[in-house]
Predict the structure.
Amino acid sequence: METHVITVKNLVKKFGSFVANDNLNFEVFGGEIFGFLGANGAGKTTTIRILSGLSKPTSGEVKVAGFDAYRQTEQIKKNIGYMCQKFSLYEDLTVKENIILYGGIYGLTKSLIKERIAELLAKLRFQEYENRIIADLPLGLRQKLAFSVAVLHEPKIVFLDEPTGGVDPITRRQFWEMIYETAARGITVFVTTHYMDEAEYCDRISIMSEGKIVALDTPENLKKQYNAATIEEVFIKIARPVSLHPHPPAPFS
Amino acid sequence: MRTILYLIRKEFIQIFRNKFISKAIFAVPIVQMLILVPAITFEIKNVKLGIIDRDMTSESRGLISKLEGSTFFKVSFSTFSESEANSLLHRNKCSVILQIPSGFGRDIGNANPAKLLATIDAINASTAPLSWAYLNGIIRDYNMDLITENISTNPLVPLPQIQITNRYWYNEMLNYKYYMLPGILVILVTAIGFLLAGLNMVREKEIGTIEQINVTPVRKYHFIIAKMVPFLLIGLIDLALGLVIGKLAFNIPFEGSILLMFFCASLFLIAVLGLALFISTFSGTQQQYMFIAFFCMIIFILMSGIFTPYESMPVWAQDFNLINPVAYLMRINRMVMLKGSTIHDISRELYSLAVIAICFSALAVRRYRKTA
């Protein structure tokens, strides 16, 4: 019934002898919000970079928007949006200049860029910031803008790598409203986060630990399966890499 | 094509929004021209001369006043002690010592060969022989004066002589500034091309903005061209600025075609920018980039023939210069500005520059990775 926009089979990514992604298998459906969870260093960013064509897999089969992650990285890039952990719009350009730049890069027409700028500024209530450089904007606004720029060209899939890190709860909420809106337009959202309340908002989530996917289902099913009240409980039960802490630290005496 | 324009626009906004860089790119050429052109010279002037006159006759004094009268030498010490003279040489207080032994005047009077001894500080192997040549010339003049004096007492004997007339072409007054200025212009353009674009690229890596570009469908050569064009234009503007200063401050002649010179400079800038961006692809930080770029720049500039004659370099060095864009522009600039060489005269240099420009740019595009 639903089409797969991302198909990953036996994906392995090694850096030297270190295995960052150890035999991953999953699919992402068109239009869903897919939460990609895992502890720090679990290998999430590595996977996102492979899926968005920034990095080549070591082995396995990866298809994104119907294109192959080994040979068709540039076609993949035409069909995705990407917003990285680290804020990466140009800080010395204004809001408007950033939008024009990325609009131009994705081949939007001049009039369409103009239209999108007006639309975006109105939607984000950003008008007063139009000609301010990014460096002067508060983090929450920047992240919202970066997300808007990532979906400027109406991609099939947008990858969000910890988009709400360090952002206040109100802005986070607004950010998730934007995510819902985007998904409602048919854009698949692939999002990583460390906020477990956000994980509850996803249609399906996967949890990664030490380079492996250890759980993948809807939040409801996972909670049932692990007999937990929240996703946070589920996460703590399965995502904590035991090998890193063989002995719990001694309590202060 | 449209993408390139959007990217170029972005680069220009960023360059001119940076308060320091936007001023420095215009201040640097002015300062560099005004300081380097008059300062860098190989002219021999005011060589410090120490004299040991053990003769103290009218003949020895005549020779000394002849030396004092020349612009090449400045008699800075007179002494009777050889050890004092040696210590002066040792302490850089003088560069040449001339010893006039006692009996110098007597020998001249008796028509015996008179003797002199010159000791020259030869730490600088190129100025030492020149000092000697000038000293020799003055003494020969003095010698000639003596001979003609003697002949005039006996006018029946004609003195056989060869008379040579020479003309210095292209730089008749032997003005060193004319020789150095075109070279300084090359250094200026080299610095702009080498440093700014490469650092700009590596900075994008450091901040992480390049990742956002790499995840878009932008073409590699679009991105590279967009990094080149602004600095190519800035380089040409600086070249023009340097020429204007050369004209106003030093009244430099310009015999050839300005258009030809700018065309060559454009090819040169593409070559240098290509190399700079190539280096930037394997530098992770601005520090790494600076280290490699500085190293390359020093080698390219010192081997280019700006200070030393190209022809006297060892063969391997001349072979290396086949891929040294600075060496080509160094020759082209001097030829076009001072000799008025035409496109035919510099065709070999021009073709070589074009090939280098294409190769370095292709390397930069090839080596730039959008997918690691």
